[in-house]
C-alpha cells in the first residue's frame, strides 16, 4: 500500500491547504503610511478639519446633537439676552403693547442684528406659547444649540498644533456655572467644554448670557456617557484630572497641566461621582488657606485653567 505523505492532524475528514494565505502573510504590508493618512491620528484629524474649512463645510457633529429651542420671557430678560448677544431667531411682540423704554430697546437691538424675525401676536397667543407665564408682551425664541462631539475638541487642538486643554463637568446643573466655565476656557486658551447628556446644565439662554458672548467661539460638547468619553480621551493619550477637596495631589505639584489634559469639575455639593472619580488619572485639590470648604464649578475651573495657561506660556 502506498505511503500517505499528507500531514495528519487531530481533525476528522479531508484537510486543505492555506491557499497561499500563509505565504502572503509573510510578505509584509509595505511601508507605514504617513500620519496624515492614519485613521484616528491627531494629524489626520487636523488635516480633515482643515479640508472641511477649505471647502466651506461645518465640522461634522458625530452624535453631538441639538438641544430644544427655548423661550426667554419678560421685558427685562429679553432685553438682557439681546444685549449679551444670545442667539435668537424670533422676537414676539404683543399687539397694542405699552411702548416703554425696554420695549423700544428690544425692538432696536433685534433690528440691528438683522437676522431676528419680528412677529406681532395677540396676548392669548403669547399666553399659550409661554404656558401662562408673565411675559409682559415680549417673548424671545432662542434656537436649539448645536453641541459638538467630544472628539471635535481634539480636532480643534490638533488643528492649532496645541496639546488639548478641555474641561468636563460632572453633575453641574446651574447654567450660570456652565456659562462661567465656557468664559474661563475661552480666556485661558482652552479648546472646549464637555457636559453629560443627562443631569447636567445645557447651553440655555442663561448659560449664553453668563459666557458673555464667548460661547460663540468656544464649543460645548455633549457626551451620552461622561465616563466612556473620559476613557476615550485617556486612550487618545490625554491625562484626566479630577478636582476634589480631598485630592492626593496639590494643584501646584500637578505636572500634567503642561501637556494634553482634561480637567473634570464636579458639583459644589456632591463633587465628582464615583465612576468619574475612579476614571481620573489623578485627583487634585486646590489649596484654600482661608478655610472655605469648596468652590463653585466656575471659580474652580478658572483657577486651574489659569495655572495651566501660565505653565504653557
Task: Give an overview of the whole structure.
This protein has 313 residues and is α/β, with parallel strands linked by helices. It has 11 helices and 11 strands. Strands 7-6-5-10-8-11-9 form a 7-stranded parallel sheet, with helices on both faces. The chain has a 4-stranded mixed sheet with strand order 1-4-2-3. Helix 4 links the parallel strand 2 and strand 3. It is elongated, with a radius of gyration of 27 Å. The protein starts with 20 loop residues before the first helix and ends with a helix.
- Tell me the span between the first and last alpha carbons: 85 Å
SSE ordering: HHEHEHEHEHEHEHEHEEEHEH
**Shape estimate:** elongated
Mean pLDDT: 83
Number of helical segments with 4 or more residues = 11
For the largest beta-sheet, the strand count, sense and barrel status come to: 7 strands, parallel
The order of strands across the largest sheet is 7-6-5-10-8-11-9
Structural class: alpha/beta
Given as residue ranges, the uncertain stretches (5+ residues, pLDDT < 50) are 1-9, 50-61
Q: Which bin fits the share of residues in helices?
A: 25-40%
Q: Tell me what portion of residues adopts beta-strand conformation.
A: 15-25%
How many E-type strands? 11
Gyration radius, rounded: 27 Å
Assembly state (oligomeric): single chain
